[in-house]
Specification:
Length: 123
């Protein structure tokens, strides 16, 4: 299994920046895709950004040009750099990963989620 722990959320003024981190731990796992999602009360969880093990990225239109997703495969850690934050970016941000579990075939391919970290953008 894989445990994901997010950090870096908090209160920031409009136009400000935050950097979220997601540390993965466990045993005998290999992460393919890491991603960030966000959710506000009464709305469905939505994709913010994905990054593959090879470094390919995908962003929601609403964050393109402002947010940057990255990962350090040696540390099993993902990051989300958020710049030019706006009040509409206020949400709980969740880290997600698709991981391969096991030392050898047959592997398990599972999805894991962190507990979420709150980002509040307000003056």
């Amino acid at each position: 299994q894989v445990q994901l722990v997010e950090s870096g959320g908090g209160l920031v003024q409009p136009g400000g920046s935050l950097r979220l981190s997601c540390a993965a731990s466990g045993s005998t796992f290999s992460i393919n895709i890491m991603g960030w999602y966000r959710q506000t009360p009464g709305k469905e969880r939505e994709l913010v950004a994905h990054i593959t093990s090879g470094g390919s990225t995908n962003y929601a239109d609403s964050v393109k040009g402002r947010f940057t997703i990255s990962r350090d495969n040696t540390k099993n850690t993902g990051y989300l750099q958020m710049n030019s934050l706006q009040p509409e970016d206020t949400a709980v941000y969740y880290c997600m990963c698709n991981a391969r579990i096991g030392l050898s075939a047959p592997y398990k391919y599972l999805q894991f989620w962190g507990q979420g970290t709150l980002v509040t953008v307000s003056s």
